[in-house]
Amino acid sequence: MMANALAAYNMRWKVENISHCWWLKMGERLESPSFVTDALEGTKWSLRLYPTGENYVSFFLNREENCSGPDVIEICYQLAFLSKDGSVAKERTAAKRKFMKNESWGFSIFERRERVFVTERETFLPEDTLTVQCTLWTTYEKPDESKHLFASTAIKVKRRSFVWKIDKPSTLKSCIRNKFKDNFIDFDLVINEGLDRQNIDVTSFDETIKYISCNTSVIDSKGRKTNYGSKKYFSRDLKEGVLSFMLLSPEMLMEDKSRNFPNDVLSLDFEFVLATVEHFGCRIRYPKLENGVVGEKTQNTAVLIADFKSLYNDGILSDIELRTSTKTFPAHKNILSSRSPVFRGMFSSDMKEKNSGYVDITDFEDDIVHRMLLYVYTDSLEDLQFESASKLYTIADKYLILSL
């Protein structure tokens, strides 16, 4: 089977909270969800971003190892960073390149880190989100039309802390344990007789966690914290399984018992920092508007759509509000979450929108937010002109409403 000479694919990938990638070591990468190009002999690809280089951000196109198609395929590709409005902020195009399976090609010097993260941050990182794009095709001349694919990755930093109070620590006669568990990490705290050994064993952690650090302090008689050590584990370490954090030196604790053991109580303060990388899969967006005609619905579907439209228009049992600069739109978390992985992430994580009861959307006009919600509830578009269609495409891209 030969690759379609007119085939072109455009993959757009959003990396949210990219400033939180500080835990990546130099040479470590962020990788997009993989995507399959059926018309390019079923080959499978991903994008690789290296944001923590010494002076430059590196950007590569990678052909997956577990990939269909021939051993070698020859394509052209173009890599770009996009600005807030979807225009190209930085772009580089490669001539035809042969890709074997499990092979990457791109640009180690794609853009200066200072320009992306500091001097032109508003252009490259609106709302701390880097949007990158890759277009790949087989002919020497780039086709006018492409099949569009979209994916997103969210980097999140979560903090956990707690205090463990131990009575009569200097006269412990046996090993004592304490367990800590939440949605992301489980660990056991162990202190042996005489404080001769203290450690934390991480017994399990969510697969989205890529970095863990623990800072251990003693709270003294005046409520002040004295740092007695910290430990960091990076993505390579986490692949090895059970992790262990050594805690305090008993000699250091005994040097000032009156301060460290007020009322013969040892108060240990633990602060954990967890960095997670969550992917929202890759999907294809097909063009839906042709000559302004929207396909007819069956009668049963039309009734259901009318009910959902009423649910939106009347705000029946709404539990969230979308707020523009001048208007508020009642909505429903379940419906927004089912249509948008971005909204789903807001309502299922520790982001402020989960508990505040509202989502601020101040960068779009009232009419565009209304049209987006109308589509979310009814899967239809009404009286859409070209200018509105362009803005609607932009907001759909922001919230990954991929069917629009």
TrEMBL record:
Pfam families assigned: BTB, MATH_2
MATH domain: residues covered: 8-136
GO biological process: one example: protein catabolic process
All copies of domain BTB, residue ranges: 318-385
SUPFAM superfamilies, A to Z: POZ domain, TRAF domain-like
Alphabetical list of SMART domains matching this protein: BTB
Protein name, per record: Speckle-type POZ protein
High-level lineage: Eukaryota, Metazoa, Ecdysozoa, Arthropoda, Chelicerata
